[in-house]
Amino acid sequence: MTYHPLDESAIIPFIKQRPLMEKVFSSFDRLSVKEVGDGNLNLVFIVENEANPAEAVILKQALPFLRVAGDSWPLTRERMRYETQALLKHNELAPGLAPQVYDFDEEMSLVVMEYLRHHEIMRKGLVARNHYPAFADHISTFLVNVLFFTSDLYLSGPAKKELQATFVNEHLRKLQEDFVYTNPYMESPENNWNPLVDDMVQAVRADGALKIAIAEMKEAYVNHGEALIHADLHTGSIMLNGSDTRVIDPEFAFFGPMAYDIGAVLQNIVLNYLSHYGHTPDPQKREAYQAYLLDMIRDIWNNFARKFDETWVNNNRGELVPEKYWDFPGGQDAFAEYRRRYIQRLLQETAGHGGVKFLRRMMGIVSVWDLTSIANPEKRAIAERLAIRIGKRWVLERKSITGVDDLIGIVLEETGDVAV
Question: CB atoms < 10 A from the CB of 17, how many?
Fold first, then answer.
């Protein structure tokens, strides 16, 4: 079938002619379709059997342009192949933490996957001050399993390079290189920011030390192919409830720095923390939920560091530092120290990449709903100014970070005198 964008009227005929859909739907007689996509890149539809609502799927199709910018910004449709590959790999390495894939049509650039009916987008749940007691455990497991088992710590050199070659994803990588690490910090027509923070935007663009640091983080993003990363792991790419977590939308996936994904998760939680200066006027409710969010950050990192170390000890099969390398008197102590330094470096780079992502959200092409949903521009500016200050410090002070409480401490220092 020659590629063409689908609309609601075309979905059911398409579904009916896909043999794999017979395993999902017991009947095609009462299918309904609803378009739900609000993202920047794709069309998204829910297809449901009205006779048995438990039978439902998500159909996601790539458009040949960047939706937020219109058809003047063309994009390759191959990203849907990368997303499908990544979802399959995620289900292999972290089963139960990504939606199941039911069907894929490369020519039509679409994937059909599990409909997470009982889940919500994490970003919106956090704005509503919901609690997710299983999240820190789930997301740390997802990060450890995907990052470790696609790295040189586990794979042989040839096996890793063969897998890496299937995730080049050059076009979406280029988007991130431009929109995260370059364009927000100079004149570029797609940039957008709240005029009330214009002075801080201009100060960032003229800060030599900061721009050197951002360039260093861009170099790491471009060249450090450590593991398969999601590369867009914000709270809008996570669906969950109180007991279940799923990572969605890995169309940016490629082999990059592990810390980019970790930094994205932690940074987005801090952005939500800041959004409550606009969303939660009651100071007691706000402070209690913000404390919960900082505890979540601490738990995510501490769980990640512990699980990563344990997984490495139990699965040191790769060629970076094989078991025989440590076969000497005192070798196990040396191996433990190497692991400690490796994980500390990941935390420092988490600060660097996370800090850059704070800044790009305040002055680049796409902000975050946590903040844009604050109707009052003055209140929104409170959160945005704090995000810029925190982001600068995470980037500039990254090499002095020794524990997650250093990152949390920066947040607390910068928000300690906020007047709402």
Answer: 9
Cα 257 to Cα 155, 204, 218, 219, 254, distances in angstroms = 16, 24, 10, 10, 10
Q: Which domains does the chain have, with CATH numbers?
A: 30-114 (3.30.200.20), 120-415 (3.90.1200.10)
Dihedral of the CA atoms 112, 114, 118, 122 (nearest 10)? -70
Alpha-carbon span 49 to 404, nearest angstrom? 47
Rounded to whole angstroms, the Cα distance separating 405 from 411 reads 10
**CA 405 – CA 387 distance, rounded (Å):** 18
Q: Are 260 and 353 in contact (CB under 8 A)?
A: yes
User: What CA–CA distance (Å, rounded) separates 112 from 121?
Assistant: 19
Among 109, 76, 114, 72, CA closest to 95: 114
pTM strictly above 0.90: yes
Of 385, 396, 397, the residue nearest 361 (C-alpha): 385
**Digits of tens for pLDDT over the chain (420 positions)?**
799 999 999 999 999 999 999 999 999 999 999 999 765 678 999 999 999 999 999 999 998 876 655 565 677 899 999 999 999 999 999 999 999 999 999 999 999 999 999 999 999 999 999 999 999 999 999 999 999 999 999 999 999 999 999 999 999 999 999 999 999 999 999 999 999 999 999 999 999 999 999 999 999 999 999 999 999 999 999 999 999 999 999 999 999 999 999 999 999 999 999 999 999 999 999 999 999 999 999 999 999 999 999 999 999 999 999 999 999 999 999 999 999 999 999 999 999 999 999 999 999 998 999 999 999 999 999 999 999 999 999 999 999 999 999 999 999 999 998 887
Q: Hey, is 103 helix, strand or coil?
A: strand
Buried b (16+ CB within 10 A) or exposed e, 115-131: bbeebbbbbebbbebee
Distance between CA atoms of residues 218 and 325, nearest Å? 32
The length of the chain in residues reads 420
